[in-house]
């Protein structure tokens, strides 16, 4: 199979143990597009799998990044494959895929604009966050999640206990929630453990868990399901395990770059 050599004109970023907690610079993805590829043969899938491996082995997925795990498609090669492509590599990439008779459409013609839209927070959301609350119409930084967990514990002390499990490598606290209404007879209840955000770039994980926590706690006494869940079960929740990696993806490799398989542990 022919693999083309991508000439990178970029500045190398070296991440060391001295990486600061907050980094202000972000990649803008100006001119980047997302192409959706349609396959009709195993040969085409093999080509993409090999190309993806080549890009990753040569640290080139900053220019072309597969947003679909190609290795997981086999034997169902007919599922669409999404690929992030830089403006400097688009012509060559499309030329090579067309040589393989791979059909494609542009799924997102302006990735930079899409990312800015995702980062947008309405004035109402900003007010909520400022007052220690949280919303689920935007992806929040870890500091916002911290304040929200503290807000829950202070507002609902009969339902929420907040403890720390220690600090991360970069000095951030790892918070553990215990949710549940104590039984009148003092007996223990069945317990359920939930954790999220093991993979730094998968922001939806922390958002999902915090949304579940919010619904159980704030609707206790008014929603029969939430009330039953806290009356009958104790919930232990670690909303963000990979706190350093989560914050890293918000500051250094924000947006689509979280698909680059860079995961701090």
How would you describe this structure to a colleague?
The protein is α+β, with helices and mostly antiparallel strands. The protein is built from 8 helices and 8 strands, in the order βαββαβαααβββααβα. The chain has helices at residues 42-57, 90-99, 111-119, 123-130, 142-155, 204-218, 224-232, 243-251; strands at 33-38, 64-66, 81-85, 103-108, 160-167, 173-179, 191-195, 234-238. A 4-stranded antiparallel beta sheet has the order 2-3-1-4, with helices on one face. A hairpin with a 5-residue loop joins strand 5 (160-167) and strand 6 (173-179). It is elongated. Mean pLDDT is 81; it is low at 1-24 and 253-265.
Residues in helices, as a percent range: 25-40%
Query: Helix segment count?
Result: 8
The mean pLDDT is: 81
Radius of gyration, in Å, reads 22 Å
Largest sheet: 4 strands, antiparallel
The secondary-structure element order is EHEEHEHHHEEEHHEH
**Quick one: how many beta strands?**
8
Structural class call reads alpha+beta
Strand content: 15-25%
Identify the strand order in the major beta sheet.
2-3-1-4
Q: What distance separates the N and C termini?
A: 35 Å
Q: What general form does the structure show? A: elongated
Sequence stretches where pLDDT stays below 50 over 5 or more residues:
1-24, 253-265
């Amino acid at each position: 199979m022919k693999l083309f050599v991508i000439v990178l004109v970029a500045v190398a970023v070296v991440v060391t143990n001295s990486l600061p907690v907050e980094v202000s610079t972000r990649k803008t993805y100006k001119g980047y597009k997302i192409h959706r590829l349609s396959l009709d043969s195993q040969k085409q899938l093999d080509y993409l799998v090999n190309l993806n491996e080549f890009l990753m082995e040569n640290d080139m997925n900053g220019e072309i990044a597969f947003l679909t795990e190609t290795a997981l498609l086999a034997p169902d090669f007919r599922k669409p494959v999404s690929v992030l492509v830089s403006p400097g590599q688009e012509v060559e990439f499309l030329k090579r895929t067309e040589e393989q008779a791979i059909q494609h459409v542009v799924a997102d013609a302006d990735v930079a604009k899409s990312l800015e839209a995702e980062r947008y927070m309405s004035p109402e959301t900003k007010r909520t966050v400022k007052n220690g609350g949280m919303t689920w119409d935007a992806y929040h930084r870890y500091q916002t999640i911290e304040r929200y967990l503290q807000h829950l514990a202070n507002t609902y002390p009969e339902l929420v206990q907040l403890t720390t499990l220690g600090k991360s490598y970069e000095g951030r606290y790892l918070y553990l929630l215990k949710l549940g209404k104590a039984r009148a007879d003092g007996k223990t209840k069945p317990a359920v453990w939930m954790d999220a955000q093991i993979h730094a770039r998968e922001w939806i994980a922390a958002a999902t868990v915090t949304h579940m926590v919010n619904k159980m706690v704030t609707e206790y006494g008014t929603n029969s399901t939430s009330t039953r869940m806290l009356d009958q079960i104790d919930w232990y929740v670690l909303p963000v395990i990979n706190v350093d990696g989560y914050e890293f993806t918000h500051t250094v490799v924000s947006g689509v770059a979280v698909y680059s398989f860079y995961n701090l542990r």
